[in-house]
Amino acid sequence: MNLNLIAIAMILAMLIPMYEAWRDEDVWQKLLAFASIATKASILILVVSVLRDDWMIGVVGVIILSVGNAALMLLAHVLKRLSDVSN
């Protein structure tokens, strides 16, 4: 199987949450879509690091995967709490 085809398919899969973030007005749904984009981007970085046999790129992908989504989901939770308190 062609590895370039896999990378192109992964990039196309990233377009789905981008469309959802663009279309939806709810902040919670936008943050979830951006978390999905971050996860897919970090998996793509890990695939590229394996293909290039470069562990430094892989470390960056792991850091994005573990820390990036946690901070984004914490922000989403704080925003949800703020909207619950104001209602």
Characterise this structure:
With 87 residues, the protein is mainly alpha-helical. The protein has one domain (3-86). It has 3 helices and no strands. The longest helix has 32 residues, at 55-86. It is elongated. The mean pLDDT is 79. The chain crosses the membrane at residues 6-22, 31-51, 57-79. This is Sodium:proton antiporter.
In sequence order, what are the helices and strands, one letter per element?
Answer: HHH
Radius of gyration: 16 Å
How far is the N terminus from the C terminus? 53 Å
Number-wise, the strands total 0
Q: Report the principal-axis shape.
A: elongated
Regions with little confidence, pLDDT below 50 for 5+ residues: none
Characterize the largest beta sheet: strand count, sense, and whether it forms a barrel. Answer: none
- Summarize the amount of helix as a percent range: over 70%
- Please state the structural category: mainly alpha
* Overall pLDDT level: 79
Count of discrete alpha- or pi-helical segments spanning 4 or more residues: 3
β-strand percent reads under 5%
How many structural domains are formed by the residues? 1
Oligomer: single chain
